[in-house]
Recover the amino acids of this structure.
């Protein structure tokens, strides 16, 4: 079974294109900064492109920032203004005491720009990476539930991607974690792809069978289908821990230690049960019998 599963994972990975993730992250995003005070503009620029960035990276970030009081700026994707100015629709106020609040608001209103913003501007990375991990963990929990519920078509709450005939639990969950690894690398301004991330991807594939065995144990111990929640919680927790480890690897050069993984998994599993319960209720309400 294991060689067969490896083969299916390999076929599923053929449908995952790191080039698409790389292209999305490299999308050109132009920020405009507006203020009546040059020193305030300097503070805003230094927040978006910190002084401790490598020179080449800081120059690249600054090339995507324009002061709106200087003629010749290209069309703006986002305009950020001094909080002292009167509010304007569609313009984000820069909060000097809590600039992270500005980041959070931009990401809430322009989630489509999250990946390129994170790649270019370090203050966006933590929030974007956290959201990527949360979203993929939730997708995997949902998939685990849907594959265990008989005779339904998950049309109202489908995953945003598919691997067709290779959609076994282990294959899909693993492939989705690999997609997550590509997204996290792109958001962290790291090289994206199978070769560049071979160590991360090998760890994900090797761990897939451990999560699968744990899920089967939990489902088997709970009668009358009550194991659906633990099964989905395992998928959620496993994905969350993988994501957290990759984030730490990109930031500090090493992933979670064994003790850190165990602690993170315990917390994530409890959270995963809550998420799974909500997803199960939604799936059951929206289930469509297959005719």
């Amino acid at each position: 079974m294991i060689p067969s599963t490896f083969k299916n994972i390999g076929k599923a990975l053929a449908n995952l294109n790191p080039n698409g993730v790389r292209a999305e992250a490299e999308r050109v995003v132009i920020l405009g900064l507006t203020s009546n005070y040059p020193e305030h503009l300097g503070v805003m620029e230094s927040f978006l492109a910190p002084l401790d960035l490598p020179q080449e990276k800081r120059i690249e970030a600054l090339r995507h920032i324009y002061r709106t009081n200087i003629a010749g700026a290209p069309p703006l994707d986002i305009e950020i203004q001094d909080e002292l100015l009167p509010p304007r629709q569609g313009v984000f106020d820069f909060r000097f005491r809590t600039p992270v609040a500005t980041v959070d608001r931009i990401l809430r209103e322009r989630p489509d720009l999250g990946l390129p913003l994170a790649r270019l501007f370090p203050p966006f990375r933590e929030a974007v990476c956290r959201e990527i991990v949360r979203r993929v963990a939730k997708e995997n929990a949902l998939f685990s539930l849907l594959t265990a519920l008989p005779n339904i078509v998950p049309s109202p709450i489908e995953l945003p991607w598919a691997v067709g005939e290779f959609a076994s639990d282990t294959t899909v969950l693993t492939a989705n974690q690999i997609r997550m690894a590509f997204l996290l690398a792109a958001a962290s301004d790291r090289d994206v792809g199978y070769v560049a991330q071979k160590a991360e991807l090998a760890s994900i594939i090797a761990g897939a069978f451990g999560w699968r065995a744990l899920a089967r144990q939990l489902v088997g111990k709970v009668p009358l289908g009550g194991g659906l929640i633990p099964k989905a919680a395992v998928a959620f927790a496993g994905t969350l821990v993988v994501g957290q480890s990759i984030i730490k690897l990109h930031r500090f050069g090493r992933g979670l230690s064994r003790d850190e993984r165990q602690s993170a998994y315990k917390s994530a599993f409890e959270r995963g049960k809550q998420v799974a319960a909500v997803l199960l209720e939604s799936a059951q309400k929206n289930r469509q019998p297959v005719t």
In short: Confidence is low (pLDDT under 50) at residues 1-6, 151-167, 220-225. The CA atoms of residues 52 and 259 lie 32 Å apart.
